[in-house]
Input
Amino acid sequence: QSFFGRGSRNQRTFRPKKSAPAGNNGMKLKRHIDATLGSGNLREVVRLPVGEDLNEWLAVNTVDFFNQVSLLYGTLMEFCTPATCPTMSAGPKYEYRWADGVKIKRPIEVSAPKYVEYLMDWIEAQLDEESIFPQKLGAPFPPNFRDVAKTIFKRLFRVYAHIYHSHFQMILKLQEEAHLNTCFKHFVLFTSEFQLIDRAELAPLSELIEPIWRGH
Output
């Protein structure tokens, strides 16, 4: 089965990988991320390259982190079911309800797989909306772009929180621990560098996050 096979949602396939925004110099910035990732210094990877536009940098990285989380969760889809995960939780203290403010205005309780499906559909709709993520060279970003990015990152964090709290044993069994930890460290350093997630939102994984911030 292809990693990026589209398939119907019911076949529980991976989502097709999103490309970096074509507009402006999205592909150049994507190459910069890939090149610096190879260096192993994630603090260096997340920094805004000299002379680059902050919104463009946020946009390219938003697509990148969406793809990473989509693939990570994709490897767990058969183990994260309405039966195993009837709510979208991150340990006993934290439970997330879904609302997008448009189709679902009041937060509803849904199973973890349904929450992730709603979330990924919602993010994809944002990424495909040219007035939010411009594709054309020189097209402006909306004034509230940073707020949109913050909401996307806040919600992507919840998928990491659910994976660590509910599926870490399976991650170990699949030998994906190192990959998950590297992706999460990259995510934490990026969101910290640009202050994209409020500290209170990070509480479910604070024990993992504090050492990353301290540089351990």
Q: What stands out?
A: The chain has one domain: 51-214. The radius of gyration is 17 Å. The CA atoms of residues 97 and 109 lie 5 Å apart. The chain has a mean pLDDT of 86.
